[in-house]
Structure prediction request, 751 residues.
Amino acid sequence: MLRHNPAVGITLIYLAFGSLWILLSDGALALIARDAAQLATWQNYKGIAFILVTALLLFSLLQLRQRQLQRSETRFLATFEQAAVGIALVAPDGRWLKVNRRLCALVGYSEAELLQLSFQDITYHKELDADLELVNQMLKGERDSYSLEKRYRRKDGQLIWINLTVALVRDQQGQPDYFISVVEDINQQKQAELELRIAATAFETRQAMIITDAEQSILRVNQAFSQTTGYRPDEVIGQTPALLKSGRHETEFYQRMWQELSRDRQWQGEIWNRRKNGEIYPEWLHISAVLDEQGQVCNYIGAFEDISQHKQAEAKIHSLSYFDVLTKLPNRRLFMDRLQQALLSSKRLDQLGAVFFIDLDGFSALNDTQSHDVGDRVLIEIAQRLVRSVHGDDTVARLGSDEFVVVVENLHQNMDSALVQAKELGERLLAAIRQPIPINGGEFVITASMGVSLFDGGSDSVADLLKRADASMLQVKGTGRDRLHFFDHSMQQALEQRVSLEALLRKAIPEQLVLHYQLQADIQGRPLGAEVLVRWQDPQQGLISPAAFIPLAEQSGLILPMGQWILRSACRQLQQWQGQAARRQLSLAVNVSPKQFQQADFVDQVAAALDEFGIPPQLLKLEITESLLLDDLDSVMAKMDRIKALGLRLSLDDFGTGFSSLSYLQRLPFDQLKIDQSFLRSLHPGDKDAAIVRTIISLGKNLDMEVIAEGVETQTALDFLAEQGCNSYQGYLLARPMPLEALEQLLTARA
Ligand code: C2E
Ligand code: MG
Ligand code: MG
Prediction:
């Protein structure tokens, strides 16, 4: 049939090739339709039938092809939509043409929102240029695709890392049609990389780091480790940290460390380790255990820091705050601490101990007359001698300028024996101090006054104990030097009395203070003025003499407000007399104690009082004693000059009792020498006192100073003074100290 019917032949050929072609191209359908129409014109029913069958077949094939296309489209869409990566079709200018769900989820926009934007809109602005450059290269045909890691900014503003692969699809004319972009989320991976980088950087810090496995075998160390220990990584990896052991710690130390580590999973503390060069150094070490998922230790991380410099600085600070810089002895602070310890242990062990309070005699004078360097060397020498004279566990400290203190523990348990022991040691210390000190080719001899107080750890406080030893020392100073004195019970009582007296005196200023006036006259008895003498009018005890409270006022500092009140009262009195013709010439002598004089603003206080009361300054006389001259002479002299410049007069009280060197006198601007009463009270011409008085009077004349005698009780004394050419006097013979009204009556009577 095929041989006789060309239509069948053609149809079969078409069928064979056509069906193959159909599968390949849509254009084939048009061709088949055209040839089928031609065959229809042949009027060959068989042929027509055959063509119809063929057409039917072709139609079925077309249907099949259509379904295949649809299936492929659906599959493509499903793949596009459900892809685990973001996929987008992007126009050459960057607009999103089609985006899948994953991409939307990744950047946080809905599909509709994203289709309004371009890839430029969501690219991290700092990375846009690099991206655009690659796009351009593709558009210019320089590359077909590219892949890069970059960041998108999500709708919520957060930056996320993605891996972008872009391929360009061209149309049939070869022009760029659209891009296919595949967007992979690599944010987590990037974060992990970042963390690793941070960890690696952190590992290379200034702290030395060491990582071991669970068996303590070193896995890794950082550069700081090598710098600190001197070991290169290859020298320690595989070893254990025991390699660094200094040998300074007992096995128990390491045992405790490991116990704590296994209990708390970390340990920190100070540890001594050894560097490669053998040097031992302190470090602050922190060890943490790292646990695996099962909670088992898998690693240990040790971080440590060399703290030797820190330690040195600490030691320096310690030494500065606890030791005297000059003598290197413990200072007051450390001494108080040690004494506290000594008290505690004496209580615990029921043992006696002793505190020796040592004050060098005449040290300020030595310091003033010699250079300060000599003073320093004396102090250093004395410190060394004291240290050498006691046992190593006894404490020798320097409390202040020339005050030293020694604490001895473990004395005999029997009080009497302990006293003897302490006395012997005290005397040994005094003897050591007394030895000549060779300095600059010369020799200096210095002695000390020593107060000793025993302690038994009873109820003594450190402060009480010191107070007692100090009080005993002052006792020595008062009764001759270069001796020791034990604190005893009567002193204790005196001490307690002093404390309560001080409290009373504090309340008494100024309401209970009264001033008495003792007339001063020229040698013919003509009144010149008076010395102002303070008394304490106590409601219970009556009138208390200044001898009983001035020393206390000086020690407690109460002399300052008291002195100020006395000075102003004297000025007020002078001001009153200025209004009375008969008394306008009278002067007043005011006693000024060293503590008062030493105040930085003493001269200003005087000037203010003069100003306030507007009195002629020459009518005010300040009496100061020689003890003041033992202090820093230059500053005393400067103050005196300023007082003189104000127009006031200065009198040197109690002259003859102290140890003023005559050279001082020449340099100081005194107007008057006041001969101490002790020479006058029982003076007889021809005796020793008379000789001294004579000498003082002639000294005054030579130095061009007035001389006044105090304590003149007898006519004999007065006659002697007149004979020797003394200018003026005061004493019971003339008048006792008395209240103002009595003095004024006396003055009126004598006028
Ligand atoms: P002073 O300055 O040497 O005063 C002289 C002391 O001798 C006074 O004792 C006075 O009453 C006493 N006196 C005067 N004439 C005679 C006499 O003929 N025979 C005897 N036996 N004694 C005589 P007072 O008033 O008890 O003062 C004692 C010391 O107290 C004073 O010695 C002075 O150092 C101090 N003082 C007194 N008043 C003040 C004051 O207002 N301020 C300061 N800072 N110290 C004062
Ligand atoms: Mg006086
Ligand atoms: Mg006097």
User: Anything to note?
Assistant: Residues 323 and 331 are 5 Å apart (CA to CA).
